[in-house]
Amino acid sequence: MERSVSTTTILNVFKVFVFFQVALFVTLTRGYVISTSSFRLTLFVTVLVLTFLSPAHAEKDLSSFEFFLTILTSTSSFVISESPVIVILILTDSSLISNIQQRFERFLVNRSSSSSTSLVTSNNTVLSELPPDVIYEIVNRLHTFRDFIAAAGVSRTWRSVCLSIGRRPQLPWLMLSETLSTDMRHFFSLCDNNRYQLQLSEVQGKRCWGSPHGWVVTLGPDYETHLLHLMKRVQIALPPLNTIRRLAATEEWFHLVHKFILLKDPSHKLSFLVIAIFGPVNRLAFARVAFDRGEGAALNRRGQDEWAIVTNPDNLIFNDVACFKDQIYVLCDNGKLVCLEIDALPEAKVQVIAPGPSEEEIDTLLKLYLVETSENLFGIFRYGDRNPLELRHGTTSFSVYKFDFRASAWKEVIDLEDLAVFVGDGNSWCIPTSTILCRSNCIYFTDDNWEWQRYPGVAYGGHDVGVFNMAQTERVIQRLPFGMNNPLFYSRPIWVTPTLR
Amino acid sequence: MSNQSESPNPTSSSNKITLKTSDNEVFEVEEAVAMKFCTVKQYFDDENNNNVTSGTSTTLIPLPNVESHPLAILITYCKKHLEIKANNADNKKEMEIDMEHYEREFLKNVMPQELTELILAANYLNFKEALDFFCRAVASAIQNKSVEYVRKFFGLESDFKPGEEEKLREEFAWSFEGVDED
Lengths: 501, 182
What we know:
The complex is a heterodimer of chains A (501) and B (182).
Chain A: H1 2-30, H2 36-58, H3 64-81, H4 83-92, H5 94-119, H6 132-139, H7 145-152, H8 156-164, E1 173-175, E2 184-189, E3 194-199, E4 207-209, E5 215-219, E6 225-229, E7 235-237, H9 242-247, H10 253-256, E8 257-264, E9 271-278, E10 283-290, E11 308-309, E12 318-324, E13 327-332, E14 337-341, E15 349-354, E16 365-372, E17 377-387, E18 392-404, E19 409-413, E20 419-423, E21 429-432, E22 442-445, E23 466-469, E24 477-479, E25 494-496
Parallel strand pairs in A: 20-22
Antiparallel strand pairs in A: 1-2, 1-25, 2-3, 4-5, 5-6, 6-7, 8-9, 9-10, 10-11, 12-13, 13-14, 14-15, 16-17, 17-18, 18-19, 20-21, 22-23, 23-24
Helix pairs in contact in A: 1-2, 2-3, 3-4, 6-8, 7-8
Chain B: E1 16-21, E2 26-30, H1 31-34, H2 38-50, E3 60-63, H3 68-87, H4 92-108, H5 112-125, H6 128-141, H7 147-154, H8 164-171
């Protein structure tokens, strides 16, 4: 009897459920919104009916625990089965939504108020847009040229900052010697040990000299010389070499000029001054390259459209040229330092200002270089073995002298501190390594000993590439494996710093 | 370098300077620390020149372009910087090693995006060592990354005209190979 009562109660409960579901369905399909409060009330009543009506009848044959379990499962199953509906109800509950919305808005206001002050400084600049001077500091600390290019592509501001930088502290690339039957040229970046390939048909079959200005000087078998910008691939023809060839008539094309040095013209900053050391007795000539052929360059200046030869009454043997504090200096045999006045009247003249550090001839001396920083002028002496019988050579050590302008004399230095020096075919230069990732206190060199090339059929050279560590405890040479399998008599690895402009 | 960097121990100078940030927070710092911020030093010197009579300075220096968050970090960095300097007064190499070690640890606790904020604060305060350090940190964070990554890093959008960017890409095609995209 009692059992039938309890079953009828459960049946009744199910009826209520079914009714409730139908009601829900009807209201939802009609698009009415049932507020959660009414829903909660319905649920509450259902549970109330179950717990307070049924147990009175169920006491006798169903244990209260079992009954409680039945109620629990039925309610939870109800909740679970209706969960989407509940979610819908919560979402459509306008009072609840408005509550959430208020909280969300308050959260947003808090967020933006804290970030708006950080986004906008008092002079109304957006935080993420760094001022150009800060961008300058950042890009000057980028190690590789590739990173520098990426920075130049970020935005207009970044690009203009990058373009405003002429020479930045950056390790040069090693332009490797030509490989036959291709116009692709390989470059080795010391900084990230990467190799890059550039298509450079302009340098094919020519001898090249490097510089830290992004330009290389080329000389072809047709005796034509050009300036070539590596990145922009702009070519500028240099004056014909007639005057130079007249003084060195017997030299073969690749042996005519020993060294081309590219300097910013001290008297006209927008022009380049190209200096050539040429011929059997290392004579000096120069030419001017103006980038703006406008009103400023209208004056006909010495070396404008010709190679002007520097007269040399004392028969000095010129080795290297540098521009220090707007004055051009030339390093001669055994380290004699001379001053070059290219615009002197009636003609360009040289004047000896100091003798070399030692008067005696050192037969292991291979080459001499002149390197400037903003404060100092350095003379770099390269020593090595020379074997005339086998026509072989190799660098063994370097010594460095600093010019003391007050005493007008060279003083040996044993430490280059934070400098890294680059010497070889082309300009000799150094970079401060304080802001970039680079070995300091060392000399990077390429092979620029061409004396065996005077002998017919000799194509030896280009292999003498490496780094000399100046640190007192070491003072050793680390060879770099470039130019080893060099079969070409005119092409050797050179240092060149790529630049954007 | 300011004159204050010579003082052996930053805590020995008892003078305190109060800095007020743009979000109205007040920081009381040692004079030695504050003097590393050249902007503050300039302001402080000007103030002192203007009223020589007031002996004990109770100046409150407003920093309208700096928020409390970066300033707090800069002060911590500055204190440590002075401390390392004082500990290795006679050994430059040792100091550099200690500083490098500290800077490495420091960067572990700084979100990359915070760096921009720190750079701007250091730039405004004209705190040279910090600016150098943060610029180095940023430079190494964008090392070997794509243009897009650098833009995202600084929250920038390209403002090049259509075609301009493609031209750049074409010109420097070699440089777009093998960069880390993330």
